[in-house]
């Protein structure tokens, strides 16, 4: 007889394991993988092995492993940032080649680790590794592969530029793109085949490997974001000089010799159109690897995959149409802006006004869409999914964290618009735009996070049915054997109707919102399920086939899907604008008047990369929302 | 018969509640408090109340409440920071009075909320609120009260300065310290009587109130830190001007009229010696309030308070002596530095060299002490405490988070020392000092975090005993009924020796490090404990009286206590130096050469407040370590 008891307590053990109990270092490699075959001899040999190992105390608490490796990663990044600060000063002691050599070394170390990991995994082919099904969905990996391809093209351009100028460039600038190509190719392979792995052996060492990979990618992101802002700032200064505002002589980014091949300038110019993709690629990879790091040593609970829906597109009309209109409008604005902003002072101002008006319309629509979504959720209140999911947890934190950049920028604009003594024509437009920007992110974050955390409809409906049955029963039976055995606090009472095993009903919780408990206790009374699996079910509501339930409420779901697809396309648009150089925050002059050039540039250099990441991250999250709503 | 089953599943329910299930808004106020009395009538009335309430859907998922209020708090802070950036530009549109009016408003709102909270709590006197015993220990609150008193003195000085200059100062500068006095007094009252409260009613509203208080204090911290850095920078420039390095005319911080009372300048000068205390006060309060915010709606598990030890001071010799020597040395260095650095160029350089040499000795000793502590922990490996404790969790994150500032500063110094083309006399001293600083924080963080997470000795020893018994038994019985019932994965097997209820032994976990499980299964076999409480015990190891066990290993514990007290005094010293103006990073010129004045000042303005907070936070954490080791 297949015993339903055998899964009991997996969640408790997972909690123990995750909150900081022992992770055994390499010596005990095969321990976990061997636990799948449960012959007595093996257990005996394991036990004796443990006896031998114990006095050496090679086991190391998980918490320490995390702190050790986390601190290493932070310092790696900070060293890189310190080098970048040195480079950005354009002093005589720290040059770009120093920074690039450091990054190249770091990438090579990551390559070595990945090689080691893959080879070791291949050797352990007989033991199937545990996988976290939530980490790195297929479409996310697909998207990253496309970004990686664009990064490869960028590397090719870089190599071409190096070949052209190799007379006067340091060899590091030639080695760097070659290593980056290797790094990108092998990292994409790693993402496809190993990102879901839950590492159980050599934990402390692997933690260092994975965190090294995380921070290597963060370093590459920082470097990309810095180069990009610097390039943009130089272009901006040149533009101001051409309009006669400032006197600007030469930049720092051009080599001081003739190019040996033709079309050199074509390569170096196109390079900057590929930067945004490269930047997004690295930050997304580092987020995925971070989830892998969080998963090390985790005991995965039973994960019910959300049922796939085959992306039904029926009645998906309004959302996509409005979204495509927004996208088309944005691309038009982008082209006009880039053309007009360099022409004359009058067209320059026209372009800025146009940008802000377009932004106000878009953000207002997005606010309305998000609010509508939240209202729909409030109309159908339900408990949020409480199962452990580091991937989703990280999504939430990144959404709120990366909003900080834009929020700071917006509040600066608001203050500048209110406090300015001059009265530029787009003063109030900027004020409205900035306030809407704050509001839009506020609402959108709420919408996305609630969407990601909501339980599937079917689960809740099944629970509701059970609850109703339960309540009817309870009213008849007057609480069963409840109150009698109340202890000192009386919060927990025991229903003694189940033979040989006891059902526990938490009264405090029942009073509050008793979907789970009553589900279980009603089953208990029906005698279907042995009591001791109650705990298991408490944490994992059963999944009931979904299709028929879903069909019942098509309207609400269709509206939500339309909202998701609309927001998806709007966020794509709002990513496009700054990514391809449409940044009127540099050009409008209002904030510079209030905060001064240095402070305002500093704010923008902080906010812009975060804003770009925020939009891309929203695009990814909204796609997930769209798939599963 | 007192039934041990009644506590089963409290941790599961807590998990469900905390991960994002329903928080009922004000309408259901009394629900929780009434659950302690379990009469049937009450349950019935609760149930019918719930029926009535449900269609209105006033309940709101906890996750959403958190995101809603968290985002509000972040925006409050960012608006304040934007104002500060405006003030620091010294432009003509944003003045200090605007910033202070904003902060005053925010403080007044917090005052109103606290008043409302206290009044409402007083009315509900009959229901005893749940408390989180880990939040805000008594000595921490005591320390904060002292800091608050110093803040009050500072406010008095501020009022005196305002009275002196009131001719030419905005009234806001007079209102601000008065409101701050009110705010400080009532906040200290709140800390003493309500900081441990676990709020269960009006959750969404209370979340806004608490987060508002958190970010008000963060805002006050930012404002203090900014004023302090600006003041320091001005003093530094004046000093450079007096040494003939630069040409500096006048600061921004002096009013442009005569003072009406005598000793005005005494007041305004003493003000800056009180700043450090005020700054620490606000950041600590905001951390404590943050823990209160995390606790809202939480179901507190049974918290076993660590046994008090009465601070035995026997054999506490080496640590305190060495620590006091370090402290005395530091104070000497501080006085000499402040005197010498303004005299001549030669004494200026002498003072800087002296500071770094002193630092190297201290940091090296601290590294050795920390390493010794970690080795002692490795000699006595034990599982870390996994129970939920937001306060400790925050401590860990703040330790690592606030280290980032110093690490960045140190890596910049390292790069500057290596890359510099000139060869100042303290080049290698700075290099050694910076590397040691990185290493010291790395080791100290590991030591403190492991100390905070380690279980009490007694618990583990009791478990070890049980484990040994268990292992002997197991070897005799050959694994019992283990392998037979292995399911698809075979990780869990069921021991069928216990009548009427089944014991589950996780083989994977058993192989790994089976303190908990074997403890339980051995009891099971002895038939002492009914099976279903196994789960409960799994998560909460029993607390055995400690004293006799502790006496057994006096040496190791005494060494650890000596280490803790030594590190405590060292961190006090390292806080004193920068807090009272000993910041040679501004004076040595090495990093300015490599990074330029702007970038290096920016780095220092970021790193210094974090560093000060880090030291203070270490002092608090080490005191806790000292008490409980």
Automatic annotation (TrEMBL), chains A, B:
One of its GO terms (biological process) is inner ear morphogenesis. Residues 460-476 have a biased composition (Acidic residues). Residues 460-489 are annotated as: Disordered. It comes from Conger conger. Pfam families: Otopetrin. It is a multi-pass membrane protein. Residues 477-489 have a biased composition (Gly residues). The chain crosses the membrane at residues 72-92, 98-119, 139-161, 173-193, 205-226, 272-293, 313-339, 351-377, 398-420, 426-443, 559-577, 597-614. Belongs to the otopetrin family. It is found in: Cell membrane. Coiled coil: none annotated. This is Otopetrin 1. It comes from the Eukaryota. Keywords: Cell membrane, Hydrogen ion transport, Ion channel, Ion transport, Membrane, Transmembrane, Transmembrane helix, Transport. InterPro entries: Otopetrin. GO terms for molecular function: proton channel activity. GO terms for cellular component: plasma membrane.
């Amino acid at each position: 007889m297949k015993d339903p008891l055998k899964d009991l307590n997996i969640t408790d053990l997972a909690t123990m394991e995750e909150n900081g109990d022992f992770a055994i270092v390499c010596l005990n490699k095969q321990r976990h993988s061997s636990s799948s075959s449960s012959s007595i001899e093996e257990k005996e040999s394991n036990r004796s092995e443990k006896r031998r190992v114990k006095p050496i105390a090679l086991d190391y608490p998980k918490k320490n492993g995390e702190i050790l490796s986390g601190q290493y990663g932070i310092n790696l990044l900070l060293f890189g940032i310190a080098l970048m600060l040195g480079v950005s000063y354009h002093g005589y002691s720290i040059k770009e080649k120093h920074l690039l050599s450091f990054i190249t070394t770091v990438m090579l170390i990551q390559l070595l680790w990945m090689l080691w990991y893959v080879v070791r995994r291949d050797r352990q082919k007989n033991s199937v590794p545990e996988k976290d099904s939530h980490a790195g969905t297929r479409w996310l990996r697909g998207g990253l592969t496309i970004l990686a391809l664009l990064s490869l093209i960028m590397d090719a351009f870089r190599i071409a530029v190096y070949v052209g100028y190799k007379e006067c460039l340091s060899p590091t600038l030639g080695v760097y793109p070659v290593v980056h190509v290797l790094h990108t190719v092998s990292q994409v392979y790693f993402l496809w085949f190993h990102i879901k792995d839950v590492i159980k052996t050599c934990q402390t060492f692997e933690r260092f490997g994975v965190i090294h990979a995380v921070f290597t990618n963060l370093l590459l992101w920082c470097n990309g974001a810095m180069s990009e802002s610097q390039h943009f700032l130089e272009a901006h200064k040149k533009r101001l000089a051409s309009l006669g505002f400032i006197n600007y002589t030469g930049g720092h980014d051009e080599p001081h010799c003739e190019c040996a091949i033709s079309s050199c300038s074509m390569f170096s110019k196109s390079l900057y159109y590929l930067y945004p993709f490269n930047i997004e690629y690295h930050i997304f990879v580092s987020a995925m690897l971070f989830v892998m790091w969080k998963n090390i040593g985790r005991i995965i609970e039973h994960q019910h995959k959300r049922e796939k829906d085959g992306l039904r597109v029926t009645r998906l009309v309004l959302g996509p149409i409005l979204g495509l209109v927004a996208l088309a409008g944005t691309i038009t604005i982008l082209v006009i802006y880039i053309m007009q902003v360099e022409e004359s002072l009058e067209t320059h101002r026209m372009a800025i006004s146009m940008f802000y008006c377009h932004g106000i319309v878009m953000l207002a629509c997005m606010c309305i869409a998000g609010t509508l979504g939240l209202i729909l959720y409030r109309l159908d209140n339900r408990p949020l999914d409480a199962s452990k999911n580091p991937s989703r947890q990280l999504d939430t934190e990144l959404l709120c964290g990366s909003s900080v950049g834009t929020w700071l920028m917006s509040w600066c604009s608001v203050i500048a618009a209110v406090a300015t003594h001059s009265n530029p024509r787009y003063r109030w437009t900027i004020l409205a735009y900035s306030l809407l920007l704050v509001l839009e992110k506020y609402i959108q974050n709420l919408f996305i996070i609630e969407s990601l955390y909501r339980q599937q409809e079917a689960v809740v409906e099944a629970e509701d049915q059970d609850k109703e049955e339960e309540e009817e029963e309870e009213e008849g039976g007057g609480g069963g054997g409840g109150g009698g055995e109340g202890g000192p606090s009386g919060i927990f009472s025991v229903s003694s109707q189940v033979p040989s095993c006891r059902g526990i009903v938490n009264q405090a919780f029942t009073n509050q919102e008793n979907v789970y408990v009553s589900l279980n206790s009603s089953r208990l009374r029906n005698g279907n399920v042995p009591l001791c699996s109650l705990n298991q079910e408490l944490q994992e509501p059963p999944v009931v086939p979904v299709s028929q339930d879903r069909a019942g409420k098509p309207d609400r779901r269709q509206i939500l899907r339309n909202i998701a697809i609309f927001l998806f396309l709007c966020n794509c648009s709002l990513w496009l604008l700054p990514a391809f150089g449409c940044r009127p925050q540099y050009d409008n002059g209002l904030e510079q008047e209030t905060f001064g050039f240095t402070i305002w540039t500093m704010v923008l250099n902080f906010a812009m990369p975060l804003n770009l990441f925020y939009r891309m991250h929203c695009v990814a999250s909204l796609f997930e929302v769209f798939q599963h709503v």
